Amino acid sequence: MSLFRLDASILPTSSASRALADLVEAEWTASHPDSIVTRRDLASDPVPATAWADAVTGGFVDEAQRTPAQRDARALASTFADELIGADALLFAVPLYNYGVSQHFKTWFDLSYTDSRIDPTGTALNGKPATLVTVLGGNYSPGSPKEGWDHSTGWLRRVLEDVWGLDLRVVQRPFTLVGVNPALDAFADTARELKEAAESSARTFGRELAATRDPRVA
Question: What is the DSSP string of 1-25?
């Protein structure tokens, strides 16, 4: 059994998304102590901003005519796809930044998506078990003053669940800036409850992830 884990937080030592993902991974490791965990940290090893354009334009010309940058980008896309396809289960830890999806994750997804096995016509990831951990500095739930300002979680679900066809579970923790931003101090009790609920979900989904298998693996 093998797990692929991707982290997109720019704060490795104080990341709320990494902390929740650690709980998911701990449950996986408890069930599969000898499993391989492949890690990709998009903060410490970011995808070059030009790689997606190079991979796309490289697809319009014969291999012999590609520039070195185009060849490198297409090779990196293949590596990303290999990591996803080769794992039995997937774990993504992606925070909300500035009301939208992390640019690190978006760049990684766009480049990965150029590989023909997982592009708009590819089906190599259909049914693969996965868990998405996402955290929000504020609270954008229905009825809140900023309802609808979370432009990340919905997009993440669309590309992971609907585009790639993953068997996806989502752990979300709002209000991570409570205790950091004094303007949110009044929500301390709510934030604590939401944190505890997210941690419980992370453990539950970690156990479920460990119990599932890629349906294409005999």
Answer: -EEEEEE--S-TTT-HHHHHHHHHH
Burial classification of residue 201, based on how many CB atoms lie within 10 Å of its CB (0-12 exposed, 13-18 middle, 19 or more buried): buried
The SS3 call for residue 210 is helix
What is the per-residue pLDDT across 41-54, written as a single tens digit (0 to 9) for each?
999 999 999 999 99
Alpha-carbon distance of 106 to 87, in angstroms, equals 21
Q: What are the structure tokens assigned to 128, written together?
A: 């693969």
What the block records as the tokens of 74 is 């297409």
CB atoms within 10 A of CB 33: 7
- Cβ contacts of 73 within 8 Å, gap of 6 or more: 48, 50, 51, 52, 54, 55, 58, 111
The identity of residue 213, as a single letter, is R
Pairing of strands 100-101, 96-97: antiparallel
Looking at the whole model, is its pTM more than 0.90? yes
What is the model's pLDDT at position 44? Answer: 94
DSSP class of residue 169 equals E
Q: What is the DSSP string of 24-77?
A: HHHHHHHH-TT-EEEEEETTTSPPPTTHHHHHHHHTTS-GGG--HHHHHHHHHH
Question: Quick check: helix, strand or coil at residue 132?
Answer: strand
pLDDT at res. 155: 97
Could you give the angle at the alpha carbon of 46 between the alpha carbons of 40 and 51, nearest 5°? 110
Per-residue pLDDT band at 215 (split at 50, 70, 90): low
Closest CA to 173 of 210, 152, 205, 199: 199
